[in-house]
Amino acid sequence: MALNTPNCHGLRTSTTQVTIMNKLQQIPAVFPRLYDVSDSIKVVEVAKKYEGPEGAPIRRIPEYTIPQGSHEYHCSKVATSWTQGFFPGLVWLVEERRRLLPEAVESSYSGKEIMRLARRYQESFKFLAKKAINHDQGFRFQLCYGMDFALTGDEEAKRVLVDAADSLVELYTPQVGCMRSWTMMRKANMPDLWREDNLDEHYLVIIDNLMNLDMLYEATELTGDPKYAQVATHQAEKSLNSHVRPDYTTYHVVDFNQDGSVKKCMTHQGYADESAWSRGQSWAIYGYAQCALRTGRKDFLETACKLADKFFELLPESGVPWW
Hints:
By secondary structure, the chain is mainly alpha-helical. The protein has two domains: 36-157, no CATH class; 171-323, Alpha/alpha barrel (Glycosyltransferase), CATH 1.50.10.10. It is 46% helix and 10% strand. The protein contains eleven helices and nine strands. The strands form four sheets. A three-stranded antiparallel sheet has the order 7-8-9, with no helix packed on it. The protein has a two-stranded antiparallel sheet with strand order 1-2. A hairpin with a 5-residue loop joins strand 8 and strand 9. Helix 3 (37-50) packs across helix 4 (86-100) and helix 6 packs antiparallel against helix 7.
């Protein structure tokens, strides 16, 4: 085998990577239920069901099944949600699986049809790439447009990805060292302190933002411009000294002063300001692992490991984390 061979993404890969890929392709035989054909059917048929009439704009995207057994989906608004990219991202994962493990995808689904569905959904919120309504651009665009570019090399997908990265950089303030996550927040039993009309009095940054940094690193790889990676690294460094507590639990929200000093640490969706919000802890584990992979920095990797250790330490006997 040649030292450099093309993989399914059209990229070059080493012999070691090919060996790893061969091992990965053996996983379905070991865990057959994870690669059942029915998975592809569920995703593609939901995509067909909710795409609406041909030519009509998509205004809502399937997000999760409605409880009580109706088998219908709650659909989020494309103009205001932060999860728009998840569903088209799932459709792209079906296409990736079709290329790697065609036996694990319904044989009647062509690559052309799968990609058409993915692009139809992601096209519906492309307009959000140029002007970020909040920090969630990585969630919106890397999962779908990023997969589009990785699998097809489509230049339009690359352009949208870079546009989204530019819109994130616009949220960055050097004096604070972070991208602003929210322009407002309402907190139960608290005065209305965080409003859009007093932005000079608060600067809200949430732990979730670590999940959007990888798109910035990717933008530097795609363009050669270091500014994206620099912003991502500054954000990770800032959160390391503000969102991450000494015991390696995490705060959900940090409100900074305009000079970058910490004004208040709190939660918005967790149990209490000083509790460990399970989803936020997960954001931090994954986010710092991604930053470590992109930068090679040992402190980011060590942080990810210690955050994970703390997560396991706090799990109840059931192994299911408290919300």
